Amino acid sequence: MELRRGGVGSQAGARRMDGDSRDGGGGCKDAGSEDYENLPTSASLSTHMTAGAMAGILEHSVMYPVDSVKTRMQSLNPDPKAHYTSVYGALKKIIRTEGFWRPLRGLNVMMMGAGPAHAMYFACYENMKRTLNAVFHHQGNSHLANGIAGSMATLLHDAVMNPAEVVKQRMQMYNSPHRSALSCIRTVWGTEGLGAFYRSYTTQLTMNIPFQSIHFITYEFLQEQINPYRGYNPQSHIISGGLAGALAAAATTPLDVCKTLLNTQENMALNLANISGRLSGMANAFRTVYQLNGLPGYFKGVQARVIYQMPSTAISWSVYEFFKYFLTKHKLENRTPY
């Protein structure tokens, strides 16, 4: 579904779906490029939000079983029955011993959070990126602008996703007492209060701001290399998204381990660390991880995290770019002529 262009001179039109303000020179265009180059200079806010919501829901739905394995593999003191050495082996063992649907427990609450969170995430990123690129780098694509835009988008995304993450991860843990999202919410609210849903928020931001900065900068850089005219090219979105997600995931695994500990409040681990009550704060989480497992503890589940994030970001970007292209073109075709 790649839309090809007739020459370098068509670069300005080819960049329009990306919201860039750069101008190219005039040049001849082939018929295949005309559809794309006649699209408006930037997609609407509603288009970014709809495309983002679809990308978030599909990304988390498809990769949810691997996410369940990642949560368990990051356990600091797992039950002997929940000790796993590989993602594939873990999935087989969970299905065999706990039932076919067990890796999907908590999926509903994740989908409810992912839709609005990703809608705000992509809409904020696109608008901030366009604004900051105009300020920082009038003649091109600024990696600084992309990094800042990704960081700002993360603030909105995590405010919605953090409660969903808490519920999801507690339901994913081995021997979880929670059989439904509603019962988990009621139990957490009743025993730990509203603050429990945001106990890991600062850690989540500390992890996701560098994650998303690395992610967006890498994605935009790779797009410049393999899709310089920034057309709708599914292969380039999949490759760029996957590699960007893998790099960002590996680099931020230590923060993800701490976030998981704060979200799950893993009882056996906290007892071994002689911690009574609830663990809170990123610094305390870092100390507890080191106390229990040393430096290797910060990279527990790194394999599962990369295996999860690489296809997740590839799915997210490819679905997002498809819906952004499709919805913008559809709106253009349905415009009432003057």
Describe this structure in words.
- Helix content is 68%, strand content 0%.
- It has 338 residues and is an all-alpha fold.
- Helix 6 (107-136) runs antiparallel to helix 7 (143-172) and helix 11 crosses helix 13 (282-293).
Given the helix and strand composition, which structural class is it?
A: mainly alpha
What kind of assembly state do the chains in view correspond to? single chain
Mean pLDDT: 83
The total count of helices amounts to 14
Keywords: Ion transport, Iron, Iron transport, Membrane, Mitochondrion, Mitochondrion inner membrane, Repeat, Transmembrane, Transmembrane helix, Transport
Family: Belongs to the mitochondrial carrier (TC 2.A.29) family.
Function: Mitochondrial iron transporter that specifically mediates iron uptake in developing erythroid cells, thereby playing an essential role in heme biosynthesis.
Membrane topology: Multi-pass membrane protein
Compact overview of the structure:
It is a multi-pass membrane protein. By secondary structure, the chain is mainly α. Helices cover 68% and strands 0% of the residues.
Could you name the key traits of this structure?
338 residues, mainly alpha, 14 helices, globular, disordered N terminus
Mind sketching the topology for me?
Blueprint: H1 11-14, H2 31-37, H3 45-62, H4 64-73, H5 87-98, H6 107-136, H7 143-172, H8 181-192, H9 201-226, H10 234-251, H11 253-264, H12 267-272, H13 282-293, H14 302-333
Helix pairs in contact: 3-6, 3-14, 4-14, 6-7, 7-8, 7-9, 9-10, 9-11, 10-14, 11-13
